[in-house]
User: Which sequence fits this backbone?
């Protein structure tokens, strides 16, 4: 029986490519004011460039807007349409870093998030989950990150008023990332 050693040290310098089969881009938003609807994007790609000085590291990610999945085909079509992501006109969402800072055991990754052609700054609270060698000789790194955005800041303003007061869809969206990336040789 072999054991796998996961380290909490910083990943090696170089380019790490996100492994979409072991990563997830998900979100949740308040629905009817009483629960949260969850969803994910099934298609995305990106690289993490780890620099000698970690604060000079860089991340660039592209997410396919049409790959949204909330487990409801009708809702997903509405989200792909002009009321929300308008995936035909704006096929990708992007994130590009503007800064990386370590605060205690956490990393603060600042960057520009672009949705529907609108770019706004966001801050990802990021945790290094570990670095490990996989059984095939690759070095892998894991990160967990989250942020909250106001969807209306990106032009996602569609909503419906409820007879009892309030709105159908909340304005605040929590974004959660589970990222596993492979060091390129």
Assistant:
């Amino acid at each position: 029986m072999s054991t796998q050693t996961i380290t909490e040290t910083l990943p090696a310098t170089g380019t790490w490519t996100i492994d979409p089969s072991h990563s997830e881009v998900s979100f949740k938003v308040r629905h009817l004011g009483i629960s949260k609807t969850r969803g994910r994007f099934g298609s995305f790609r990106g690289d993490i460039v780890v620099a000698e000085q970690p604060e000079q590291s860089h991340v660039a990610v592209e997410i396919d807007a049409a790959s949204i999945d909330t487990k409801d085909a009708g809702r997903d079509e509405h989200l792909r349409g002009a009321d929300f992501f308008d995936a035909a006109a704006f096929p990708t969402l992007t994130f590009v870093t503007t800064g990386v800072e370590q605060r205690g055991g956490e990393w603060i990754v600042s960057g520009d998030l672009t949705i529907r052609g609108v770019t706004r700054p966001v801050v990802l609270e990021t945790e290094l989950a570990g670095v490990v060698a996989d059984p095939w000789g690759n070095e892998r790194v894991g990160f967990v990150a989250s942020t909250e955005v106001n969807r209306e800041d990106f032009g996602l303003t569609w909503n419906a008023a409820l007879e009892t007061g309030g709105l159908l869809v909340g304005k605040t969206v929590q974004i959660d990332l589970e990222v596993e990336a492979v060091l390129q040789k």
User: Anything to note?
Assistant: The chain has a mean pLDDT of 89.
